[in-house]
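User: Please check token order:
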Amino acid sequence: MKNKKSLKNKFLFGLVIMAIFCEVVSSQTIDNIRAEIILKMPGNPGEHFTLNIKNVSRDNTISYLGGNEFPMVVTGTIEESGSNIHYSISLTALENVFFNFKQSVAAGGAVHENCQFLMPGFWYRHNLRSPQAAPSFHTSESWLVREDRLSSPLTGVFDESTGRYFTVLRTDDLKTVAYTAINYGEVILSGENDLGFTGFENQEGKTWLSFGFPYREYPKTYIRKLTLAPPVTSFYELKKGETKTLSWVVKKGRASDFSDFVSQVWTSTFDYLKPQAVSLLYSENEIKRTLSNFFVESYVESEDLNYFSGIHLRTDECKDMGGAEVGFIGRVLLNAFFAHQYAIENGHLEVGKIAAKILNSYLENGFTDSGFFRESINYHTHEESDVYSIRRQSEGVYAILNYLDYERKHGRNHPGWEGRMKKLLSNFLRLQNGDGSFPRKFKDNFELIDSTGGSTASAIVPLVMASKYFKEKEYLKRAEKAGKYLESEVIHKSDYFSSTLDAYCEDKEASLYASTAMYYLALASSGKKHVHYTLLARKAAYFALSWYFLWDVPFAQGQMLGDIGLKTRGWGNVSVENNHIDVFIFEFVDVLNFLSKETAEKRFSEFADVIKTSMFQLLPYPGHMCGIAKTGYYPEVVQHTNWDYGKNGKGFYNDIFAPGWTVASLWEMLTPGNAIEFMKSY
């Protein structure tokens, strides 16, 4: 390319795509495909070329016509197999070029305002639960995003008016991504790159699935929590004579509703990508021994509460920051139970003493005047929250009921703890609304701060457990009432939101908690009720699974997570607001294995094996510290895409993390069958 001539004059729209069909290509087929290419000369703005398409011969070829001087030849095949259409496109450079290619396929003529959208682990419906500063229809009705944002490199559209759906899935083996100095505007990639983009667009009121290579993001790119930035378009260099081959599959089908659509998409994508378990170099016993170091080194005593310091730590120090938190990101009490159990079963006296001191301090000093857990305290800043949450309270009750059950089975009783739990459970009953829901946040005097019911599922689990432990039918009755709310307002509406306490948006944990809650109700029931709750657990499970990665995103050399070999399959994206992956799993592997057995869905147990192996890859121990300062302090905020929680970005962690909950999550996954064993006891 020469500076003296503009690209537009020189190349005269000259792009050719050849497509071979099993049948003659119709004009209708041609009308359902659009394409464009952007060519860039370094130091100059890229030039857009809209490509004209027509059927050129009887041998089933189509051409995206332009002038003979265009510097690329693009050839392709389109093969139709049942409900799938496979696109394979090869781009060959006639001289050195920097390009960005996009193709769009019509979603069956669907009217855009009738459609709901899915980009797994990132976009659900219109993302309208999300704030305006996160990706959503609040900002635009068309979105293109880089593939590594998504738990599957896929976009789907569901037409509610007809029940028809279309998806597009990238089918190449994506192994490389180029490191870039900037992440907005027009960017020439520094080297090899397989990463493209996908999304949906409103074109003249109709929905089109759009996809291409290399990546671009439009109308905004999402760079950190609640921070939208200018769009980005990247350009890949092809030298004269070089070829880049790309492939996608477009699938069409029918679904009864959005939930059915999500389940069908997850199933077909799982079958296509076939994620496999990850090989580990250490055993489950070695993992527990490594994680147990967290119990020792994070232990802190005060004149008030003793606790594991597991929140707001720096990854390069892991020093106590004064934070004691019952649930959510701290999980002090669940870790205390696991430490107690581990100490007894392995003769670890030091860990046993630590667990006892924590539990005793919370029994004596860990409750408010009204009987709620003191949820979150910082002993360095002398700050204590006066706003409480149904999630943290529920997680605290869950931990203590597991502890009491374990102790009872070993001939030890704790009437003081039982009294505390009965008082707290009576508070739960008082908080429950007439429709069965529980408020998200409240004060010690029961004043409601956030009355939305998105966290209702959290309360069901301890209520079911308490109904068995205390032999109190009222608890189960209230759990079932909450279950009806969850069924009608969350699961049937596919409206999973606001379970993550630091965000107001669609999130993974809401669907995971919903599935787990129905699992507990199923275990506590028999006959038709058991079947009913099991099917609801399955319905919510598909939504939870949609957040978990079915593929391995590529990292560039120099991005630590790639350099140490992280495979992202089996890890879960967090929420629309918090666009990173983590190891939030707790009992969900048990739920998947239960559902696999009860519903004969083998994919659940197969993917449970992927999760169970993959999530231990970043276990920090001497010689394998994975960027963490202390052994057993398992990382979180694992940043897998162009997004950061405040520091570092793709391929690294945020500099602040909370190993309190990560240790608890992984430890619980290592103790399978907990709920079933609990229920069997009563």
About this structure: Residues 1-25 have pLDDT under 50 and may be disordered. The longest strand covers residues 97-111.
